[in-house]
Amino acid sequence: MPGTLYLIPTTLGKTPENNTIPEYTLNVLRQLEVLMVENLRSATSFLQWVGDTIPEYEIEFYHLNKNTPDQEIYSFLRPLKAGKDAGILSEAGAPAVADPGAKLVKLAHQNNIKVVPLVGPSSILLALMSSGFNGQNFAFHGYLPIDQHPRKQMITQLEGESRRHDRTQIFMEAPYRNNELLKDILQTCRPETKLCTATDITLPDEEIHSKTVGDWKSGKLPNLHKRPTIFLLYGK
Fold first, then answer.
1. What is the topology classification, in CATH, of domain 123-234?
2. pLDDT tens across 167-177, in order?
3. Mapping DSSP to helix (H, G, I), strand (E, B) and coil, where does residue 1 land?
4. Cβ count near 178 (within 10 Å)
5. Who is most buried in 8, 182, 208, 234, counting CB within 10 A?
């Protein structure tokens, strides 16, 4: 029988204590001898935070990021086909959501390998929950274009779609470009359009602001530089 592929959420940042991950999820992780990780250093740091895991030198690590060739990802199925359970560890939050683990999950299904998602934090859903925007109709768009002109065009497109379809639009940016994205949104969107920024979710410095673009412009802007942030637009 093949093993099971577990999808294991990690914390959304460094926390002094565990306030986001159920003990059941941590206990599954503590038993795994095979892990697919995006970054070995941060993965081992997380394992040390969890505690009581199999010793790192006994764990079979596979490096899975956005640049891993498809053929190499296919080879990650070998221990699963040999009957070993394995886990995908995200860098932060939920595996396979805005995360390269999705490719391996797809292959697991194609090869009749059981996939089990485990409970843990998702910054996208936590941001939507706290925004006050439409939670019945929403879309996640990942990263917007880096260059300013196409980025502003995309913001205008998302704002229009939100207004026409009553849809919450969710996206993100590399943390060191957050302030630039915030300024572009405020320069591009209508005053009545609503914007929420959800920053450092679940961490001690968590900040969630949800108000109209007009209100955003009339007040002091938060400093989002190098702070993980989810952006939400709502045109209704």
1. 3.30.950
2. 999 999 999 99
3. coil
4. 22
5. 8
| Bridge partners of residue 180, in order along the sequence | none
Of residues 233, 10, 236, the one with CA closest to residue 119: 10
177 sits in which H/E element:
none
Q: H-type helices in 67-204, by residue range?
A: 70-75, 78-81, 101-110, 123-131, 148-165, 178-188
Reduced to 3 states (helix: H, G, I; strand: E, B; else coil), residue 82 is coil
Q: Find residue 63's DSSP bridge partners.
A: 37
Mark out the alpha helices in the chain (DSSP H runs).
23-30, 40-50, 70-75, 78-81, 101-110, 123-131, 148-165, 178-188, 213-218
Q: Which fold has domain 4-117?
A: Cobalt-precorrin-4 Transmethylase; domain 1 (3.40.1010)
Dist CA 22 CA 35 (whole Å): 19
Distance CA 170, CA 186 (A): 16
**What distance in Å separates the CA atoms of residue 88 and residue 29, rounded to the nearest whole number?**
10
Confidence of residue 14 (pLDDT cuts 50, 70, 90): confident
